[in-house]
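Researcher: Next sequence.
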Amino acid sequence: MPEFLQVCKDSGEIDAILLDEFLDLVSRKPDALISIATGQTYASFLRRLASVSLPETLQFTHPDEFLGISPQHPGGMVAELLALCPHLHKAMEQGRFLAVPASGEGHQLADFERMIEDRGGIDLHLLGIGRNGHIAFNEPGTRFLAGYHRTPLAESTRADLAPSFAPQEPPDQAVTAGPRSILAAHRIILCAKGKAKADAIKLMMSGSVSEAVPASLLRRHDNARLLLDPEAASGLEGETEGMQ
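Model: Next structure:
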């Protein structure tokens, strides 16, 4: 298997490795800019991080948000992150949390991307993966050259979101960092936990890099790491041969 892929013994080992990477970066760069994906993949890590002392110079952001959802809106991506980790809540209060513009307006997204670049780029990007192989909200077919943009959500993605929004309908559009924006990060770690992610990981690691499977693009990044628990890795045997 590729050097960047590591199958861990369980979710706890993934969280321990993440914490080591996180603290190593912070020790070297106390004002690092770190992007964290939402969802259950990072929930236990963020709860663990809450008990660790961190410098108040750290900067945070996130890869995506539902269209028109403010950072304070329950059910939104930012609100979920802030609820999981007091460090992120404090960073928001102090102006160290950079929220993706949920308006979806092109000029605001371009300004946001320039602000990220002006701060030296994202030092560490923690990503998850969707069942259809999406990263952030880059659904299959998203152009690899896309930056921050507004996008419709695939029906499979909306189905996964439905329990969190019931009895209302889940959102059908979002704003997201595009593949080009994600690949610009200095370090990327994608984590996947559980059997439900096994097919997506198999898609990511099988065959050639393709816009049909946005997560496959990470195989072209020279400083990426893929951390899996045994269930998420269960479909990989023999599937990484002949990768391009």
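Model: Residues 5-228 form a domain with the Rossmann fold fold (CATH 3.40.50.1360). The CA atoms of residues 75 and 166 lie 11 Å apart.
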